[in-house]
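hey
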């Protein structure tokens, strides 16, 4: 009963708060999201850049939040803050163009083989498709560090023109007016659960430790007794599979 009382009191409070009051009250979310994300980014990315972008996201949330929807402002604000930070990271373009191009080729090859075999393709199969060595595949997975290129936070895919399309962009074009509601739907959850089940045991462990337990690549390497580079390879290959399966679902839903 106590929990219900807190919930009913929270909604009118948010309704009564001005845009400025919302921003001031939820400003700590910016640092929370930014510090969580920067742990997974290269050292050349500055925390201040993420914080500034997060402010833009929070302001956007305060302006666009609809209290009539069954979504907490905190949830909505965190979504907008993270999205603004990801936009900023893309604009910084700290990933070398040559690496980005190779990664896009790798991703397209993976998508093609996944559709052909209806299972995660092996490293040997990917290498044969791209006509490069397995060592080059390993190196590419290791360099595509778990941030903008490869992350559950930015579960998008790249089209033929090199444009990165996120699930949010798909869902905003669909009939469903609330992209957050769609992403939290049972259908998407089932797609991701099934895709995770298709991963190897070690890949599932890395995904769990990274996204649910909050361990860094270095910490996971120490725990599992492998190098940080190897953890990055495992993580990025797993994320590529989840992205491919989610892409299939989103395309079928359009």
């Amino acid at each position: 009963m106590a929990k219900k009382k807190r919930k009913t009191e929270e909604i009118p409070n948010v309704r009564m708060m001005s845009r400025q009051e919302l921003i001031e009250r939820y400003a700590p979310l910016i640092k929370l999201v930014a510090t969580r994300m920067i742990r997974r980014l290269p050292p050349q990315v500055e925390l201040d850049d993420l914080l500034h972008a997060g402010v833009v996201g929070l302001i956007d949330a305060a302006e666009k939040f609809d209290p009539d929807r069954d979504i907490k402002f905190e949830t909505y604000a965190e979504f907008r803050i993270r999205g603004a930070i990801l936009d900023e990271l893309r604009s910084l373009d700290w990933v070398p163009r040559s690496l980005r191009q190779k990664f896009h080729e790798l991703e397209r090859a993976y998508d093609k083989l996944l559709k052909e075999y209806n299972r995660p393709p092996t490293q040997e199969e990917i290498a044969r498709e791209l006509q490069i060595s397995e060592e080059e595949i390993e190196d590419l997975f290791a360099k595509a560090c778990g941030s903008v290129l490869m992350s559950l936070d930015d579960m998008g895919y790249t089209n033929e023109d090199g444009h990165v399309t996120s699930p949010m962009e798909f869902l905003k074009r669909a009939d469903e007016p609330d992209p957050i509601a769609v992403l939290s739907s049972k259908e998407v959850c089932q797609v991701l659960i099934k895709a995770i089940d298709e991963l190897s045991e070690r890949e599932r462990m890395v995904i769990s430790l990274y996204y649910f337990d909050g361990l860094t690549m270095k910490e996971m390497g120490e725990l599992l007794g492998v190098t940080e580079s190897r953890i990055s390879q495992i993580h990025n290959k797993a994320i590529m599979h989840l992205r491919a399966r989610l892409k299939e679902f989103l395309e079928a839903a359009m």
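Confidence is low (pLDDT under 50) at residues 1-12, 156-179. Strands lie at 157-158, 164-165.
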